[in-house]
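Milestone 3.1: sequence recovery, worked example.
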């Protein structure tokens, strides 16, 4: 397609262009094609093969745009379905992966740890500044699940303020090798929020991603 035809398409023929564009849409392609036909040299018209190639490109572009539109509609429908499915968890108890604990200011907070092998377990609790406020030496434990309970007190026995704390657990096997310990929280889903890019479950004072949920228990 000639430079003359492209320039003419922006000022005459099949409508006028509106502002600068970085990409050509379907209508722009058609506008350029028609303008080229209107401005071709009668003594040297566009070659038939070239015209067929351009028509094939236009047809391909139109089909791709149709597929893209249908895909957007499908994704929107899938997103709505996922959101609706998430609301079905409200009122149910779930188990989820976590590295935080919500301390209410009284009572005892409990998480579940899972050991892949027997190990000597140590738990470290940190405040919002990243400072370690309590270290729990749980001692030698067998493989499997165990409860990690925290009474909200620091290393000196002082009651800490309510809030969210970070918790981590490590283990040492009998051979002295380090062992990662997976932690899980458990709680009742009281609601769902769709404020972000993905729905979050409201459990106590925490917001839990669906990808972190590992078990759903019928209430």
């Amino acid at each position: 397609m000639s430079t003359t035809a492209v320039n003419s398409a922006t000022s005459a023929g099949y409508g006028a262009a509106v502002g600068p564009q970085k990409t050509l849409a379907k209508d722009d392609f058609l506008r350029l094609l028609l303008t080229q036909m209107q401005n071709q040299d009668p003594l040297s018209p566009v070659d038939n093969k070239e015209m067929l190639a351009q028509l094939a490109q236009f047809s391909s572009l139109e089909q791709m745009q149709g597929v893209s539109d249908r895909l957007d509609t499908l994704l929107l429908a899938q997103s709505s379905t996922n959101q609706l499915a998430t609301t079905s968890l409200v009122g149910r108890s779930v188990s989820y992966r976590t590295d935080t604990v919500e301390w209410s200011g009284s009572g005892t907070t409990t998480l579940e740890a899972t050991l892949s092998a027997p190990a000597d377990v140590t738990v470290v609790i940190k405040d919002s500044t990243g400072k370690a406020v309590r270290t729990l030496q749980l001692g030698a434990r067998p493989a499997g699940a165990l409860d990690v309970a925290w009474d909200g007190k620091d290393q000196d026995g002082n009651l800490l303020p309510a809030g969210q704390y970070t918790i981590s657990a490590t283990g040492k096997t009998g051979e002295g090798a380090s062992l990662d310990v997976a932690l899980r929280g458990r709680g009742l889903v009281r609601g769902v929020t769709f404020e972000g890019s993905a729905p979050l479950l409201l459990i106590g004072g925490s917001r839990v991603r669906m990808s972190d949920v590992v078990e759903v228990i019928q209430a």
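Residues 105 and 162 are 4 Å apart (CA to CA). Residues 1-17 have pLDDT under 50 and may be disordered.
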